[in-house]
Amino acid sequence: AWELNQHGVPHTVIADNSAGHLMQKGEVDLVIVGADRVASNGDVANKIGTYLKALAAQDNGVPFYVAVPGPTVDFRLASGAGIPIEQRAAREVSHINGRDPEGEVAEVQLVPDGSPALNPAFDVTPARLVTGLVTERGVCAASAEGLRGLYPEAAGA
């Protein structure tokens, strides 16, 4: 939001999980997310929840762009299937810190004993859900051809 504001671009910041609802209501014109890694076919790895936002965008006809610096693209990686997904500690999901009745900070368990928790840090959004990749060299299709067009020097990678 800071960069958009600096350039006078109208924008609204929303809570992550309100995106699908707002798209259904026609209140979202465009989605722009970042990426931690892009495969040579245009598949995108980003923070968990990006894939769901891309699905909601597609279902509601909202353009879905990914802003990436060139070094984020891994031309040696054929597809997002080869991107390892970090699994973070289950305790991040099953517990939370808060204050007890005496005002002391305490950890509280949120789930019943024996309930397993999964905590993937990233997900992979298939290129077919991405309207375009926004790079320092311009915008391209989320495809091998689009990326090679912007980064011809990497075509042999």
Question: What does the model show?
Answer:
The protein is an alpha/beta fold and 157 residues long. Strand 2 (37-39) and strand 3 (44-47) form a beta hairpin. It has helices at residues 2-6, 19-24, 50-59, 91-94, 144-150; strands at 31-33, 37-39, 44-47, 64-67, 73-74, 95-99, 105-109, 122-125, 132-135, 138-140. The protein has five helices and ten strands, in the order H-H-E-E-E-H-E-E-H-E-E-E-E-E-H.
Largest sheet strand order: 1-4-9-10
Q: Helical amount among residues, as a percent range?
A: 10-25%
Average pLDDT number = 95
Task: Please mark out the parts with pLDDT under 50 across 5 or more consecutive residues, or reply none.
Answer: none
In brief:
The chain is of the alpha/beta class and 157 residues long. It has five helices and ten strands, in the order H-H-E-E-E-H-E-E-H-E-E-E-E-E-H.
Features:
four-stranded mixed sheet, 20% helix, 2 domains, alpha/beta, globular, 157 residues, Rossmann fold
Per-chain topology:
Layout lengths: L1 H5 L12 H6 L6 E3 L3 E3 L4 E4 L2 H10 L4 E4 L5 E2 L16 H4 E5 L5 E5 L12 E4 L6 E4 L2 E3 L3 H7 L7
Parallel strand pairs: 1-4, 2-5, 4-9
Antiparallel strand pairs: 2-3, 3-8, 6-7, 9-10
